[in-house]
């Protein structure tokens, strides 16, 4: 049976045995032959080329030579004892040196003839040598084996200490590969293989471990990555299709009075093209008879609120209520205020429901929502409580979605007799590849344009030693009537230490900005909500000029007069967090600044983060860099997505393959939605398997 070989436990592999098996399981999660086959090399050493002695340069990571050993001897005593051999080819000579395994090497050298030498060149006493090179007698077989791309496998210190280094893993893989002919089940259909010029699975697996040349390696990697991405996309698109078929949406058949009146008479500003495009996308969705599930991405300040409002007006024109849910009370308040403002000339009722809504008010409000008198409801989590019943909910807008869990979303959906349309808005830009994977079952709209007249925030990096100048700059800005945020990180192991940093910082600022000339607010997570709101309100009312805070101000707060954001210990923030924080300024007409304060000692990664922030304001570009730096596994929301199960594909690099895989998946499901055609049997089987287990690579039976 095909999979017998693959499901064999690793201890039964020649040369492994129970002890090493235990280690392989613990250290690398290799339990079976299949797991070993799926333990891909993370890079390859190019041994396709033989160099000449005369070509050797110090900067070469390694060289491979072919020639004679013309002399060798053991020199030195004790720890300096070493074997020195003189290697020669047609262009010159170079010394090879071994400190260990001398006896073994000497025996090999004594066999004479032509040798293949492979190692890293070094300089000693002004001359090149190669310490501890690999040495092989140049038989035909060795020459062929040597002249290839040699796999380098991930392993651990512990494994290495037990002799399981990359080479040993390669030898183990070679045994499995030599036995696997016609035993690797194909997981794609013949049509998919042919149309996309993909190698068979077996061929690809063989080549990925033992590539004959760079070109075939690329083909093998393509096939493996394609498969990984294809099955994730297939799952997502299937979910989307099932939903589209099974769930009838409420039909918003017309654009009516409210929408039109607002658009012609009450728009507070002309819409950007991006806003218009997104509103059109929403109109098409909601007018299709299917349930809309749309993710709206738009950088902070790109103007998502008015898109939400116009969608709500569209719902109203079609006899439906809408609700808008925000993650915090402050944000819910702000939304409520800006929507009320815009709706005032229209005379449309709108209500706010949060945890602090008083009981009496709450009762009337809930009655109004249940009867349908109140068409628009804004709120926090309070909206998903059972007591909130709508008369006819047609649209749910969720702001800053990543703060809400999937089941919370589901509870909002179930509030109507019919499924309401769902618009999820997020200001956290996600790279396209990640969006396609995380939200592959949603439709995605993007506002990729800021309203006109915005001055981009100027971002500046300063070392802690320049604090005095930074204080002077702050004073200058305050004298011009501006307000300032100073943000401290909250990411240490110990909350106490964070708190101490914050309080120390606060005190030093109060010293530098004394009363009564200056007023300083402070806001942090250990304060009571009411105190926090009080301080926020003071800052909003311009009663204080400086707001010292932890990242609680990260989300959504809108104080247009605040034009300077100082981020302390900026090296301790992630890129997306820095970008979110910077988004708090640059909301008014004034030139705004973001100052990143760091110590002198920065790792390469931190430096890249800081430089990226200084270079660009483009959230999508920043998200791409973030993805490259951190890998998809660490980005919020990816844990449940299957992205972390990717072994070879890399969402920061394989956008083109992902795009292709998605297209092929869509086409396939269009032609055979339930994958019942016999030609698609392999795909259907694989998909079932993947649906049965989240980490679908480690289980095959
Ligand atoms: P987001 O929620 O996407 O961060 P908002 O909807 O809060 O952004 O909009 C940010 C600011 O820009 C608001 O003050 C809003 O009134 C303004 N704004 C939005 N769209 C436009 C536009 N097309 N032209 C001018 N100003 C706009
Ligand atoms: Mg917003």
Compact overview of the structure:
By secondary structure, the protein is of the alpha/beta class.
What can you tell me about this protein's structure?
This protein is an alpha/beta fold and 701 residues long. The protein has 25 helices and 22 strands. Helix 15 (359-371) links the parallel strand 12 (350-353) and strand 13. The longest helix is centred in the N-terminal third of the chain and has 33 residues, at 214-246. Residues 694-701 have low confidence and may be disordered. Bound molecules: adenosine-5'-diphosphate and magnesium ion (MG). Adenosine-5'-diphosphate binds at residues 269, 271-272, 275, 298, 300-306, 427, 451.
Query: What is the general shape?
Result: globular
What's the number of extended β-strand segments?
22
Give the helix/strand class: alpha/beta
Mean pLDDT across all amino acids: 87
Largest sheet: 7 strands, mixed
Please list the strands of the largest sheet in the order they lie side by side.
6-7-4-3-2-5-8
Question: How many DSSP H or I helices?
Answer: 25
Fraction in helix? 40-55%
- Ends: how far apart? 10 Å
The hetero compounds bound to this protein are: adenosine-5'-diphosphate, magnesium ion
In quaternary terms, these chains amount to single chain
Question: How much strand content do the residues show?
Answer: 15-25%
> What Rg is obtained from the alpha carbons, in whole angstroms?
32 Å
Question: Which consecutive residue ranges, at least 5 long each, have pLDDT under 50?
Answer: 694-701
């Amino acid at each position: 049976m095909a999979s017998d070989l693959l499901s064999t436990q690793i201890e039964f592999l020649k040369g492994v045995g129970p002890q090493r098996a235990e280690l392989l399981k613990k250290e690398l999660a290799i339990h079976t032959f299949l797991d070993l086959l799926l333990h891909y090399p993370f890079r390859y050493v190019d041994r396709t080329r033989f160099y000449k002695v005369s070509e050797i340069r110090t900067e070469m990571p390694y060289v491979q030579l072919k020639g004679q050993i013309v002399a060798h001897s053991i020199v030195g005593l004790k720890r300096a004892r070493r074997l020195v051999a003189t290697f020669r080819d047609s262009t010159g000579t170079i010394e090879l040196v071994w400190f260990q395994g001398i006896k073994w090497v000497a025996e090999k050298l004594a066999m004479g003839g032509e040798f293949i030498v492979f190692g890293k060149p070094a300089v000693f006493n002004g001359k090149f040598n190669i310490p501890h090179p690999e040495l092989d007698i140049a038989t035909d077989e060795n020459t062929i084996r040597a002249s290839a791309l040699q796999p380098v496998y991930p392993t651990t210190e512990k494994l290495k200490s037990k002799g399981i280094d990359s080479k040993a893993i390669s030898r183990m893989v070679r045994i499995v590969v030599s036995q696997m002919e016609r035993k690797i089940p194909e997981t794609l259909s013949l049509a998919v293989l042919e149309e996309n010029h993909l190698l068979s699975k077996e061929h690809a697996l063989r080549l990925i471990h033992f590539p004959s040349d760079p070109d075939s390696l690329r083909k093998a990697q393509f096939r493996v990555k394609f498969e990984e991405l294809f099955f994730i996309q297939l799952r997502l698109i299937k979910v989307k299709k099932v939903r589209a078929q099974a769930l009838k949406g409420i039909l918003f058949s017309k654009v009516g009075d409210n929408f039109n009146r607002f658009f012609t008479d009450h728009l507070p500003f002309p819409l950007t093209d991006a806003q218009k495009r997104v509103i059109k996308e929403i109109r098409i969705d909601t007018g299709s008879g299917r349930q809309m599930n749309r993710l709206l991405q738009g950088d902070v300040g790109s103007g998502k609120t008015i898109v939400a409002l116009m969608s709500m007006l569209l719902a109203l024109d079609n006899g439906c209520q809408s609700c808008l849910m925000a993650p915090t009370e402050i944000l819910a308040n702000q939304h409520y205020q800006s929507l009320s403002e815009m709706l005032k000339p229209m005379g449309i009722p709108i209500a706010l429901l949060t945890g602090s809504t008083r009981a009496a008010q709450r009762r009337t409000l809930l009655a109004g929502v249940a009867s349908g008198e109140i068409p628009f409801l804004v709120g926090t989590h309070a909206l998903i409580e059972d007591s909130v019943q709508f008369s006819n909910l047609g649209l749910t807008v969720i702001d800053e979605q990543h703060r809400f869990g999937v089941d919370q979303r589901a509870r909002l959906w179930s509030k109507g007799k019919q499924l309401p349309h769902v618009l999820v808005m997020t200001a956290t830009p996600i790279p396209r590849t990640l969006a396609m994977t995380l939200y592959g079952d949603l439709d995605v709209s993007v506002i990729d344009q800021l309203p006109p007249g915005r001055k981009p925030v100027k971002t500046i990096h300063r070392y802690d030693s320049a604090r005095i100048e930074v204080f002077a700059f702050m004073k200058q800005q305050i004298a011009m009537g501006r307000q300032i945020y100073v943000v401290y990180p909250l990411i240490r192991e110990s909350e106490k230490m964070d708190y101490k940093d914050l309080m120390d910082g606060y005190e030093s600022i109060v010293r530098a900005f004394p009363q009564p000339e200056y007023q300083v607010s402070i806001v942090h997570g250990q304060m009571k909500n009411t105190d926090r709101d009080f301080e926020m309100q003071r800052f909003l009312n311009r009663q204080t000029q400086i707001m010292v805070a932890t990242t609680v101000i990260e989300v959504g707060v809108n104080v247009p007069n605040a034009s300077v954001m100082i981020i302390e210990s900026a090296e301790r923030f992630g890129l997306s967090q820095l970008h979110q924080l910077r988004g708090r300024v640059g909301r008014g007409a004034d030139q705004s600044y973001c100052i990143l304060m760091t110590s002198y000692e920065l790792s390469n990664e931190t430096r890249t983060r800081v430089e990226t922030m200084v270079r660009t304001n483009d959230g999508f570009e920043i998200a791409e860099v973030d993805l490259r730096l951190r890998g998809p596994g660490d980005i919020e929301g990816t844990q449940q997505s299957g992205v972390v199960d990717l072994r070879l594909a890399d969402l920061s690099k394989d956008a083109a393959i992902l795009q292709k895989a998605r297209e092929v998946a869509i086409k396939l499901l269009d032609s055979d939605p339930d994958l019942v055609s016999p030609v698609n049997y392999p795909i259907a089987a694989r998909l079932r398997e993947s649906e049965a287990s989240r980490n679908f690579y480690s289980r095959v039976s």
